[in-house]
Each structure stands twice: as C-alpha cells, then as structure tokens.
Amino acid sequence: MKKVLYLLLILSFLISQNSFSQRNNSGANAETGIQYLSGTGFDDAVNWEFFCTEGNNSGKWTSIPVPSCWELQGFGTYQYGMPFYGKANPSGIAKEQGLYKYKFKLPKEWEGRVIRIVFDGVMTDCEAKINDRRCGHLHQGAFYRFKSDVSDRVFFGDTENVLEVTVSKESANSSVNMAERRGDYWNFGGIFRPVFVEALPAQSIDRTAIDAKADGSFYADVFLGLGMGNNTKVVAELTDVNGKSIGRPLETTLPQGTDKAVIRGKFENIKNWTPETPNLYYVSFSLVQDGKVLHRTKERFGFRTIEIRESDGIYINGQKVNIRGVNRHSFRPETGRTLSRQANYDDVKIIKEMNMNAVRLSHYPSDPDFLDACDELGLYVMVELGGWHYSYDTGTGTKLVHEMIKRDVNHPCVTWWSNGNEGGHNYELVKEFGTLDPQKRVVLHPQKNFNGFETMHYRSYGESQEYMRKPEIFMPTEFLHALYDGGAGAGLWDYWEMMRKHPRTAGGFIWMFADEGVIRTDQNGRIDNAGNYGADGILSPHHEKEGSFYTVKQVWSPVQIMNTKLTDDFSGSFTVENRYDFTNLKDCRFTWILKTIKDDKVSVVKSGEMKNFDLAPHAAGTLNISLPSNWKDANVLSLTAYGPKGEELWTWDWTWKKAEDFYSLSKGNAPVSVKEEGEKLLVATGNTILAFDKKSGTLASVKKNNKSISFANGPRFVAFRRGDRSMDVYYNHDDNSARSKERIYEDISGVSRLTNFNYKTLGDSIEVVAGYFGNMCQARWIIKPDGTIRLDYAYQYEGVVELMGIMFDYPEDRVVSKKWLGNGPYRVWQNRLHGTTFGLWENDYNDPIPGESFLYPEFKGYFSNWKWATFNTSEGIINLKNTDDDNYLGVYSPRDGRDVLLYTFPNSGISVLKVIPAVRNKVNATDLVGPSSQAQWVTGLQKGSIYLSFETK
After folding, report:
1. β-strand pairing of 443-444 with 414-418
2. In 3D, which of 458, 652, 473 has the Cα closest to residue 555?
C-alpha cells in the first residue's frame, strides 16, 4: 500500500512539474498583446481627427472622442427610427458619413506577430484603411465585433501608422437598415464601441467555445489560427478567481494538419454558476509544440447546465426556475449607446436591486462589459440578434450571427439566443446558432411560438391565461409596458400571482428598464424622449427611480412575508415563502423594529435580528421573533429581509391601532362663537374663523389670525369614470366615439342640492349640519373650544366608479410642500398598491411632465394608509387627520404626458377617497390588466370623518 502511495506521489509530482515546465517554457510572446487605439468607454475616450459630411458641425475637419455616437458630440442629425418604420429608402432619412483619422505606433517587439485590428461596434457601415491600404472588407451591422488581419500593412517601433475609417450612418444594405434602423429607438452614427489592436504569435489559438456542466464535466472546442504540425497539443488548466489551481490539467494531442482541438474532462467539487451563486472560474488554454508554449489564452466561465423540458419549464442545474426579467437598451442620455465599464456594471446592479434575475438585450448584443457584469453579479441573459421587425438578409445575417456567438458564447450568464424581435426573424439563420454553440442553448423568436416557447407580447390578463393553456412554455419576452407612470408595477401583482403558479409559465420580461431620453446638443441640452416612444422605462433617463421600481422590488422579492395583517392573537410568528431557486434562507438575515409613532415623533420600543433561518428554496415556513408581551402598546412593526450579500430585499410593515392613535388633537381653551353675516355663517374657535356658504352648505373660507387660507368649497362629492364605459362597466357600444374616450375620465359627481342647513350649540361646541339631496348626503361639522374641528361626512353612490370620495379646493399654485404619516414616499394606484412603506414622508411641490421632466416622488396623486397630512402653503399650514384606515388621501390630479396616452382626470383638489383609479399601460386599458385594475361597483352609504386645523405664517 505504501509503495502504491509513493508511486502516486511521484506521478503527481511529475505531472505538476510538466505543467510547470509548460507554463515557464514559453516564448516571450506567448500571450496576446492588446493596445487600445480608442478609449474603453465614454469615460476615457481618445480624440481622433473627424470630418462629418452633413448635418450639425459638418464640412470641416475637427476632432471627436472615440468611442462615441457623433450626434452626442454635436455632429450630424438626431433621428428616431419610428417615423421611417417599414420604409427601406425613405425621404428625409439622415445619411451623413463620418471620416476618422488616427495615428498610432506599435511596439517593436510585436514585429513578426499576427496583427489584427478589432472594432467592437460601428454604426453602421464601416470601411477602414491602414497606411493607405484597405484593412478588411466593408462591414455592415452596428452591434458586432469584427476584426481584420493587418500584419502586412503596419509599421513597428518609431514609425507611425495612420488609420482611416469611413463610417456610413445609413447602410448601403437595405436589410441592415430595416433590421437596425427602422425601429422604436434612436438611430445614432459613429464608432461607438472601442477599437484596439491585438498581436498574436504566428501559431496561435484563434478562439474557444466552452461547455461546462453542473456536474463538473468540461468540454471545449479550441480553434487555431493555422493547421498545426507534429508534436502539438493543447493544454487546459483550471483556476478559481483567486488563482488557485483546480484539479489536473486537461490536454489533447492534435492530429497533424488540424486547426481544431477538442478538450474533455471532469472536475470534482466545483461550485455551480447561478444568478444567486455566480461562481466563476478561469481556464488557461496553451498551444504547445515540442514542449514550448506557442500561445496562451484565458477565458472566464462557469459550470452550469441549462435544460429546457418540453411543456414544463427552464431548469438550471436541475432546478426549475422562474424568470423575473426586464428588457434593456444600452443607453445613457449624454453618450447614447456608448457606455463605460462602470455604466454597464451600474445597470446590472440596479436590475439586481429590483430583485430581478434576468435581462433581455433588446434589440441587439450589448457591450462585452455588460455580460461580464451579468456573469459576476448574476443575471440570466437573452442575447439578441438585431432585427426589430425586419430581418437581415441571409448572407449578412449569417456573418453577424457568427460574430455575435463567437464573442459571447463562453459567458455563463447567456441562457438564450434570440433571432431577432417581433417578426425580425430570418428562419434560415436558426441552423447557424447550434453549429457555433457547443451548449446548444435554445434559440427564441420573441413574440412568436417557436422552439417550445410561447413568447407573445403584451397580452391582457385574460389572454395570458389563454396562452398558458397551450402546451408550450409561456414566457412573454415583453409585458406590462412601463410608459410614464403606467405599466411595469401596475397590474404586476395580479400577473405575477397568476404566472408563478402556472406549471408551464417560466416568468417574463417587463418592457423596459430605462427611458431612452437623449441629450439634444442641438437643442440647448434638453432631454428628448421622442414623445412617448422613448419614455418606456421603470427608470427615467438618468435612472431616477419611478414608483414602479419599488413595486417590482416588492412583488419580485425572493423572500415573501405572507402576513397581511397582525391578528389579535399574533405572537411574533410570520409565514415566510422562500422564492429563491438556489438559496436557503439560512444565508439571509432579518431585522425587525417595533416602534411608536405619534405626530412626527418616532420612538423605537424594541428591535432584533434573526439569522440562520433554515428554509429551503421554494419552501414555506414560520419565522418567529421575540416581541415583548406589551407589543400592542406600540403601533408600528416593520420586518426587513436581507439577501446573502447583505442587500435589502424588502421591508414589510404593519399597523394595528386606529388612525387617531397616531396624532394629537388641539389642546386650547378658547370660546366658540357663531354668527350669521348675509349668505355666510361664521364659526370662530379661538383665532380660527370658518365661513360656511348658506346656499351650498360648504366651507367657503378660512381665516387664522385674520389671515385668509383659501381652503374651501367642500366637502363635496366627487366621482370619476372612464369615458368609454357604459353604466354597466363595460365598453359603451351605444357611443360611437367611445374608443376615443378610453383614456379620458369623466366627472360623474352629479349635483347635490342642499336641502337643509342649520347649526346649534352642542355643550361647549358648535355643530353645523348641511343635508343634501343627491350623491352627497350630509356634512356635519363639530367645532370645539380646544380648537378641534371635526368633519363627519356621508355620501352614497350606486353604480360604477373609478374614483369616489369627498374633496376641497385649494389653489395648487400656493402649495409649497406636504408632509404625511402613511405609506410612501411614492403615490399608489388601485392596481399598484405594492412598493410603498409606512413612515413619515415629506416632499416639495412638483408637477413633472411625464417623459419630459423627471422629479420623483411625484407630489400629486393618491396615498394609502395615511394617518395625517400637513400641507405647507404660501398662506399657511393646512392639517388633515384621518380616522378611517381604508381610505386614501388624494392630492390634486396626477398629470399625464402631453400626448395623454394613459389618463386625463378632472380636478379632484385635496380629497379623501374611498376608491382610486387604476392606471393603464401603453398597450392595455385598465380592464385588461387584471382583477386589481377593474372599475368598482359601489353601493350603500359611505361615511367618514377627518379633523382639520390651520396655521398661518
């Protein structure tokens, strides 16, 4: 036995020495040399000489940073694709060319090597010369890496090389224009991704294609630059990200004359790659001849297995997964499609912050840096060939498929290939994908039923149910269009509950990550979203977070707390669902805070932390926290879940006491008086005077310390309904203009006629009562000597409404800010109640125009679970205090974009509402976005009470 062990030790030593020998017996030029001619992104761009032929700043030689989109540098013509949709050669299309020149030197030691110039992305047609000799052929197609061998036309050492590049914004190939430049996004021009030179040994490895399985199996196709002679082998050595060797080197001897090697092997005890556990490895490939390393390359990859089970779902490493994804353009307002490494990583971090696990590259391959970030931080990626609604011709498309897959094939994040979008599918190209990808990842045709996936876009809630009845896996590659403040979060709860529970639904991809609002250098720097075309994002152009950002974050949190209320017998036990696919919750942690909030004072009663909560993926369990026995004396409990990397997943909160427990009332002691003056009834408490209109019964004006506060004309009943509805909810077929009214809400408040108005002394208080015939029934005011002003109101409406409550008027132009205790800081809609948390919030007045100005959270809208609110105005302070936890605070009417594609509401002032509207998305009206989006049938008497007080400045 000892002899066997001794021989094994010797053998292991010889193998390691052989490996060491190969690593060190390499020529000085065994590595690939890289020299950037441009910057790597917008943050380190290099100036080149530049001449633009048409448009802004044209007709003269100047300079431009490379990489860049030339429009953003003040050249050429800004143009959005949609006005030219479907037209191969339309009039008015921008056709400027950019002429580039750059001088550079190459290291003397590179002489004798294979020199290639590499362009990572040029819009759109590219022709290049080095030292007045053509390098490569005309390249057509913007988003793809292409390279040319220029070994015989470059100088080394002190002799300068001159690179000249001609870029045509509009391609000479109409199929390229139709695929890339007639779509719903900005059309730019320029060398918008990096340019570099690579130097390889004369005998070298050209590229590799890896397939590394979850069980440790390893396969690689290694393609060589030349056919090789005798005594040649390829050796693969694996390390982790820290450089530690994994297992033994794998090697294969090449048959004489071949230009391809196949490496196979298996590694033990490896860690799999998933978005939750993005474990990565490096493999070094060495081309060895007669014991000498001729060339060495290095690739980063991950071990993981993708399996598509027919009529079932997507399995990663044997685990069925749900896709929580978003579509993403490569974009920044100041630089267009030119990004930086940091910008790409920032995008992935924001996507992860929304608790998403997937991204679709719409509608072209991204920067390599973005895929690196997805590998490292963990996202499934759908890499898409260009083709918005039209496809490349087969010859061009074949070339571009090859360029795309050869560049991206080894990224473990790449989970699907997409062969164009929404009809931009050239079916003749499908066969090309499999020949280049040893992993045989599935090829999808977004919006089509293809390859076992039904990916139809923007189906209504009911239509989605119908699509789920098909045998194919349902995974919409676009759904819940996020135009302005509609879509994305609105309706997501309904869709997701339906989708995640269906056995053949794999999840989906929301449209879209961020607005494509571009800085117009030709229009004084304004942000241009091309009307409603580019304003599709959950984020605004500079990644300002819209309300739906937090709705998505809550609904898609991989940890869900299922307690919606705390019952009287609650003892600290929470029902928890672990919706992670691979993470046990023992790797997560929870914190909780029990607190008391009174007025604007917050006091923490007790807090705690829970770790090592053992709950397997896809399981449910009970989390117990140690609340004090008198926990009900407090009034707020919050619970926060954190992921394995310490990231906050979501915070849930509960309140259990009546609204009155959250605020104090006035404690003055001033006489109350009442008198009539013409058409007004004046009631005074201390230095506050309320004037009531005896003809309408409403509050006519307020004075405090002899200063007017223009809070008036209420309470009065207010109700809206969508203009295309009949009184039976459904589309009004009797109205020929109904279709034009589906975005316009009509005031159906009606007229409430005053039937009685009286006042009387009630103890030491004054009671004022107005009675009505109509939807408004009664307003009863109690004014007390301590300064308390209480309004009890009642109204009744029988029928269909989409907003209902009571309202007051106050001039919007006099409002400065508001502060409130309730859910915030973002407004809610009936179909977007998720995404807010309970607390003290404050924001200044704003009135942003969706798609044009980007101020968040919006001041106006509807706010849930409110206890009190204070409006700071130029005249003074208006205080409202709630008594009903089931109503909403309405703050004027939310504003839509100029093109009013979502809603137009009548004025609703400052209101207390029992029903608030749902919000539609760009594609589907509210009726079509699920149960939470439906209009409300209301019946019976509705009652409520609020307290009011006023202060002057």
Report:
1. parallel
2. 652
- AA letter at 684: A
Could you tell me if 100 and 122 are in contact, meaning their C-beta atoms sit under 8 angstroms apart? Answer: no
CA distance 253 to 251: 7
Cβ(892)–Cβ(908) below 8 Å: yes
Distances (CA, A) of 811 to 323, 396, 926: 47, 61, 30
Nearest-angstrom CA–CA distance, 812 and 794:
26
What is the amino acid identity at position 540?
S
Report, as an integer, the average pLDDT of 807-820: 98
Q: State the helix-helix crossing angle for 368-377 and 394-408, rounded to 10 degrees.
A: 40
**CA 603 to chain CA centroid, nearest Å:** 35
What is the separation, in whole angstroms, between the first and last Cα of the chain?
95
**Residue 106: both structure tokens together:** 């190459």
Burial of 357 (0-12, 13-18, 19+ CB in 10 A): buried
Assigned token pair, 737: 């203009």
Nearest to 39 by CA among 29, 47, 28: 47
Q: For residue 805, which amino acid is it?
A: G
> Measured between alpha carbons, how far is 287 from 228 in angstroms, rounded to an integer?
10
pLDDT single digits (tens) 735-754: 778 788 899 999 999 999 99
DSSP strand E in 419-463: where?
A: 443-444, 449-450, 453-454
Q: What is the pLDDT of residues 370-429, one digit of tens each?
A: 999 999 999 999 999 999 999 999 999 999 999 999 999 999 999 999 999 999 999 999
| Contact in structure between 868 and 821 (CB atoms under 8 Å) | yes
- As a whole number of angstroms, the distance between CA 689 and CA 678 comes to 16
Question: Average pLDDT over the chain, rounded to whole?
Answer: 95
Determine the Cα–Cα distance for residues 171 and 126; give it in Å rounded to an integer: 9
- 492-501 vs 461-468: helix crossing angle, rounded to 10: 10
Q: What tokens appear for 253 in the block?
A: 């001897």
**383, 368 contact by CB (below 8 A):** no
Residue 8's CB is within 10 A of a number of other CB atoms, namely 10
**Residues in contact with 727: Cβ distance below 8 Å, sequence separation at least 6, in sequence order:** 799, 800
Neighbours of 355 (CB within 10 A): 20
Pairwise CA distance, residues 221 & 518, whole Å: 42
Q: CA-based diameter of the chain, in Å?
A: 118
Distance (Å, whole) CA 592 – CA 576: 14
Residue with tokens 């079916």: 427
- C-alpha to C-alpha distance for 389 and 420, rounded to whole angstroms: 8
Q: Please, are residues 357 and 378 in contact by the beta-carbon 8 Å criterion?
A: yes
Q: Which two tokens stand for residue 193?
A: 């991704």
- Report the candidate in 692, 866, 679, 913 with the shortest Cα–Cα distance to residue 789: 692
Q: CA angle, 222 as apex, 430 and 152 as ends, to 5°?
A: 95
Output the CA torsion sign for 623, 626, 631, 636: negative
Is this model's pTM higher than 0.90 or not?
A: yes
Q: Which residues of 678-708 are buried (b: 16+ CB within 10 A; e: fewer)?
A: eeebbbbbbebbbbbbbebbbbbbbbbeeee
* SS3 (DSSP) at 342: helix
Strands 941-952 and 876-882, sheet pairing:
antiparallel
Candidates 122, 74, 611; CA nearest to 364 is 122
Encoding tokens for residue 263? 């490496």
Question: Model confidence over 139-158: pLDDT tens digits?
Answer: 999 999 999 999 999 999 99
Q: How far apart are CA 723 and CA 740, in angstroms?
A: 9
Angstrom distance (rounded) from CA 866 to CA 889: 7
Residue with the two structure tokens 């000479």: 172
SS3 17: helix
**Residue 792 tokens, joined:** 């009890």
DSSP 566-587: --TT--SEEEEEE--SS--GGG
- The SS3 assignment for 467 reads helix
Residue 408 is encoded by which pair of tokens? 């991206």
Beta bridge partners of 527: 519
The H or E element that residue 553 is part of is helix 547-555
